[in-house]
Design a protein that fits this description.
The chain is an all-alpha fold. It is 49% helix and 0% strand. It contains 3 helices and no strands.
Length: 73
C-alpha cells in the first residue's frame, strides 16, 4: 500500500470514527418517535406494501404499524 493510498484511507475513516453513537435521554425519545421522523416519503404506500408482504409471507409484525389483527388493515 502506498503512502498516498494509506493517507486517503485514514482521511475516509476519520469522519466515520467521529460520528460515534449518541445516547438518547428518555424525555427525547418522544421526539424521535414522531411520524415525521420515518424514512418513508409516503406512509400510505409503505402501509400498502407492508400489508402485501404480510399477506404474501403469512407473517405479521416487526413494524410500527398497528391493526386489529383481522387482516383488514
Amino acid at each position: 500500500m502506498t503512502v498516498k493510498c494509506a493517507f486517503h484511507l485514514v482521511v475516509l475513516c476519520i469522519p466515520v470514527l467521529l460520528t460515534g453513537c449518541a445516547s438518547v435521554e428518555p424525555w427525547e425519545k418522544g421526539d424521535l418517535a414522531d411520524p415525521i421522523m420515518q424514512f418513508e416519503e409516503n406512509p400510505i404506500d409503505a402501509g400498502i406494501k407492508e400489508h402485501y408482504l404480510d399477506y404474501r409471507e403469512g407473517s405479521v409484525g416487526g413494524t410500527p404499524a398497528q391493526s386489529g389483527g383481522c387482516g383488514c388493515g
